[in-house]
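EI: anyone free to look at a 126-residue chain?
SC: sure, send it
EI:
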Amino acid sequence: MSVRLALNEEGERIGELIGLDLDWSEVYPYWLVYEKDNRILGCLNVALSKPIGILDQLKIDPDVGPHTRGRIVRALILQGIATLKADDTHVCVSMIPFELKAYKKLLKKHFGAEVIGQGNIVMTRL
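SC: here you go
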């Protein structure tokens, strides 16, 4: 298992997970991937910016079970936060779709996120 920056040649797999028909040929250094047994099971977009960075588009392979899904989510978020911190970003913002209330609760409980904006945008001080 590893969480790392995606390589450009892995963009097609990210596109499959995201579900958008776009040109995914240039994903480095903007995406993290969770890889196990040479298979990418999850991805997260990391937008480096100062003072506010963005973690967005968290997607997990729909075929993984709920326990594995939780491990993947945690690993990607932790690495995303570490990536932003390494760039001296002060705040991380993420938009959580209304239908994914469980993710918002997870971010609040385990990562200290605060709800801002219209109730589906969360912020964490780094």
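EI: Residues 49 and 89 are 7 Å apart (CA to CA).
SC: 👍
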